[in-house]
Every structure is written in C-alpha cells, then in structure tokens.
Amino acid sequence: MSHWLRGVLAFLCVALCAACGTPERESIKTLLITGQNNHNWPVSHVVLKQILEDTGLFTVDLAISPKAGEDMSGFLLDFTPYDLVVLDYNGDAWPEETNRRFLAYVQAGGGVVVYHAADNAFARWPEYNRICALGGWEGRDEKAGPYVYWQDGRLVRDTTAGVGGSHGRQHTYVLNARTSEHPVMRGLPERWLHAQDELYDRMRGPGNIKDCLYTAFSDTATGGSGREEPLIFTVDYGKARIFHTMLGHAGETVEDSPAMQCAGFQVTLQRGAEWAATGEVTQEVPADFPTATEVSMRGIVVHNP
C-alpha cells in the first residue's frame, strides 16, 4: 500500500470517528533511544521512526546520545511522558541517573521494544539483561546465563559453556510461529519468509521469555548454530510489557536495508510496539504480509528524519 493511500485511509478513519461521535484515539507517545551502535544507527533509527509513524498510532521522539567516547554525563532522559520506549542503542554506559529512571519506568509497567542489536548492550548490567531476556556479544558467556533455543516443542535452557551471540551470513529464512494466542499473533500466519537478514543464534542470558512468538532455524549451511532460535518474543519482567525482535539489520542506506523493508518485519514491529504500549493490538494483518514461500517488500520513504 502506498504512503499516499495510507494517508487517505487514516484521514477517512479520523473523519468517520468524528462523524459518528467516537473520540479519536490519542497517539502513543514513544521515545526512541539511539546514537551509538555497532550497527548502522543513522539508518535504523529513521526507518524505525517511519515504520511506527506510518501506522498513524505513534508519535516518536528521538534521544540521540553523544558519540562513543564523548562525555555521557548530560544524557539524562525523562521517561515519564512516554507510553513506549524503543531501544536502538548499543554503546557507552548511560549515566546512573538515566539507568535509575529507565528501571523505574519499566518496573512501573512501562512498554519497551528491544530492537536487534540493542540486546548486545550493557552486558554487565543485570537488570538490563533481564529486560532483554537474551543477549549476545560484548563478552557474554555462560556466566551471562544459559543458551535458550526451541527443541521438541518447547524452549530449552542449555548451560553448556561458550560464547554468547553469533550469526551466519545474511540470507532469507522462514519464521515459525510458536503460539497463536498472543494479541501480536492473532491473524498472522504460522510460517512466513523473511527478507535477507542476520539470524541471531547462540544467544544467552537470564532466559526469562514469557511468550515465544516466532523462531527460525539457524542452518549450519549458512554458518548457523543448527538450532531453532527464538527471534521474536515477549519478556517476563514484572508489570512491564516488553517486545523483543532480533530481526531488522540496517544496511548502508535506507534503500539498501532489505531486512527493514520486509513487510513481515514492519508489521510484527508495529503490532509488537502497540501491544507493548497498550496491551492490545488494533491493527489488521495487511494483505501484503509475506507467505511461507514469498518475501514481501515495502519501499521506505522517510518523511521526517
């Protein structure tokens, strides 16, 4: 669906609500944290913002950190105005006051989206690792927690020693649904083909996954683990609603980011973000959602980077 047509439909929905006396829903106030990453954050954050705002549900503010190695003491964030925090950050430690405020926000029931390499961040911050449930790289090993993967119809916690976090070469792969009951999953297919992307494997951590939504097989032929890896899930962390997606590697440019252009990535992100913020999903599954055999790509037009 073109951006023009989406805009027309959004306008008609607002007009219909006004005509029938139904109040227009307030936008979901979202804070997207970025500015440092071992991935291409200058591309990923503008694409994430656009994907969310394309729904008409979200208003996204940006918190862009100082560059790596610069003074972080002024990076003090206020989470209280927000319904949702999106993590696109993997870099230098935040100030302790920002850490404290973030934990207070999450522990009070805040909504969080953990996106791709954000689960690499802050390996030595125990509560952050519980918020992610699984992470990789940055020196993680068996001390970080078990490997967690899908086997024989359930999640397995494997305490074998070894590094945490790896992936083979980028390729297309099939996502396999592991529940149909969660609001994010209603109407989504049991299998769909994702565009070329990294497939994170050998991830480890506290492993406090609440709802395993989708897994994918990390084939040794592509340099993978040979296991069925959890890639989209929710996290069991008190009153908080946390949606974790390991999909969506950003390329050199917006146009050269097939993983982020994939309709499957965009729709699951949009639905997961709405659920994390509100506890429900009002979005319909679009007609261009991928099938088990065909990738579905969407162009990305960034209106307000």
Automatic annotation (TrEMBL):
Q: Which residues form the signal peptide?
A: 1-18
Tell me which residues make up the ThuA-like domain: 34-276
Q: Name one Pfam family in it.
A: ThuA
Question: Keyword Ligase on this protein?
Answer: no
Originating species: Candidatus Parabacteroides intestinigallinarum
What's the protein here called?
ThuA domain-containing protein
Q: Which UniProt keywords apply?
A: Signal
Q: Enumerate the SUPFAM superfamilies for this protein.
A: Class I glutamine amidotransferase-like
